[in-house]
Write a structure and sequence with these properties.
Length: 374
Amino acid sequence: MATELRRAELTNIVYGSSFYGGGGGGSRQEGLALIEAMYKEDPDAFIKMIDITEMEDDPNVVSTMIAALGSPVATKGRTFQEESVNAVKGMSAEARFGGKELKYVYSGEMGGGNTMLPLYAAWKCGLPIIDTDGNGRAVPELNTGLLPVHGVPTSPVILASEAGDTIVARTEDPMDGAACEKIARYMCQAFDQGIGFAAWMMNKEQHLKASALGQMTLANEVGEILVNTPASEAVGKLQAYFDKKKIPFRPIVAAGTITDIQISSEGGFDTGVTTVRSDNGEEFKVIFQNENLYVKAGDKTLVTIPTIISTLDLSDDKMAIPVSNSETHVGQRIALTVTKADDRWYDLPECYGCWDEVMVSADYRSARPEVKFW
């Protein structure tokens, strides 16, 4: 049954998707700004969300993911409103060119900015959003994702600027996500470290095979907990929620302080190391490339992607706020939690292998954990 997402639900989704973003996926401030833009234009605005079962069975009726691509630090404060709408229009034209009809939008990744952006674009273009996500978490590169791992072509990719410039990238091999990534990152740098894009045009059968079904509902429910729970109780409430859902979850640091951040913004990425000291004196290092990739305690690796490593800001007593790596600072009071990602992240060896290049560049020898966390 279709659901109407209004201000309360959209706000929950911004906070919940920030949690599932695991340090990436854009800032919640960008997501909240998009909500304000919607309701400034139409005080009665709502977005229609459908379950995957309500998507048409026709293989030529398709959906597209919409996201912003770029360095979170360099693009902080940009909402990508025009870029996202232009990306939908570009993919719609590309669908028609291939004899298909674009009728739906879906979220390509979880994150405070990058989940609200497709919701905004769907509303602006008069299309429903699907209760799914292309990854069920945030990912740093086009080739580090559930969809290419499960056989969904990345190409064609639509890259759209604020001014309406639209670029269609088609690779010789439609499955060559690495080539799509290179093209997209180059264009990202050409447009001030940020650009809107659309990719992974999918029909119903492909969604059933590859995407994180029901993820928008999960983000809404997690966000509702965070928005309505005092910071001191948030980790416990999340633990109870995930226990009920039978989704593995645990805090690495229930409460602690960020003591150091080393970060650089190059090539469309924020790369670095965050050092956290828990209140009991233990020290942990979180290595990230936009998203949190792995956590170390001394020489031991505790957990790696695809598990979701989330940072919750405990500075405001009213609520624990999930933050991206563009929003952390030295001295910040935080909790550090880990949550098992969608089951599809664990069903093929490629779900780990697709991260190898990213992990090696982050000084890790393999994307396969030294110790199985779950």
